[in-house]
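Collaboration report, partner site 2.

Our partner group contributed sequences for two proteins of shared interest, and the home lab folded both. The records are reproduced in the order in which they were received, starting with the first partner submission.
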Amino acid sequence: MIRSELIQKIADDNPHLYQRDVEKIVNTVFDRIIGAMANGDRVELRGFGAFSVKRREARMGRNPRTGEAVEVEEKHVPFFKTGKLLRDRLNDK
């Protein structure tokens, strides 16, 4: 499911809301999650999962084409850990 499909589904399920308002709500939720993660905070949605940021150390890598050693800088990557309810539904418990 992509963002536009999510917005359409919520708008269809809630006919009393305008689609433009649903779009603003969805965008606000995503912006808040992104903002919190950018600040290094953890975002937990009970039953769904938790988003956090993990730090990857700088290291020496290799260019796969030439085999030349390349320095890879430290970086931060998003990490998602599923919640128990989501895991249970995926495994039909």
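Second partner submission, folded after the first:
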Amino acid sequence: MSGFDKVVNSYEEAMAGLDNDMTVIAGGFGLCGIPEGCIAQIKKMGVNGLTIVSNNCGVDGFGLGILLEDKQVKKMVSSYVGENALFMKQLLEGELEVELTPQGTLAEKMRAGGAGIPAFYTATGYGTLVGEGKDVREFDGRNYILEESITGEFAIVKGWKADRYGNVIYRHTAQNFNPMAATAGKITVVEVEEIVEPGELDPTQIHTPGIYVDRVIQGTFEKRIEQRTVREA
């Protein structure tokens, strides 16, 4: 295989270089499309002082929530944090800094960071606590606030299929934050359900081109349901 081969054979290789006080951007929405193996490796490595950028912080005992158990996370940049009792405890006790960000704004912060755009204006959050202290400009009679983009030393992403060159396809709802997160890391690690040979993926179906991806690993995944809701009989 050529030098373009990005497949690694262990999570130790996949997360090599991660250190204390770094920023990690994590794809996923709730428990859907989360990079479980990369998260488990971060816990195993014991690095701390991390800033984690993700839609949410998993749940107690699963997903990003396991990084709270040993207080590895210094700061969370998230849009939703309501499913994690340990998260709430650490926040209320001043052990965890939290920057709540509107969901669409968070997605655009990742996308803009990956595109090399340092900041952008959005109407979301104007006139609320989110907009306090931020630059305001008026466009076509509507007020917008300036939001800075986000990048990180690492981005960890969950895909469905990838080829050995790092081209990735996501499945269904895993297209949530994963494509944006994949562009915003200096080192982007993608774990997938299946790795195929170059040429086997339809180029028109690629969601994340391999140019954004540094490492690919095949993982195994536990497909949990965050809130199981059924209809009454």
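Feedback sent to the partner group on the second submission included the following. The helical segments are 11-14, 36-45, 85-92, 103-114, 178-183. The chain has a mean pLDDT of 93.
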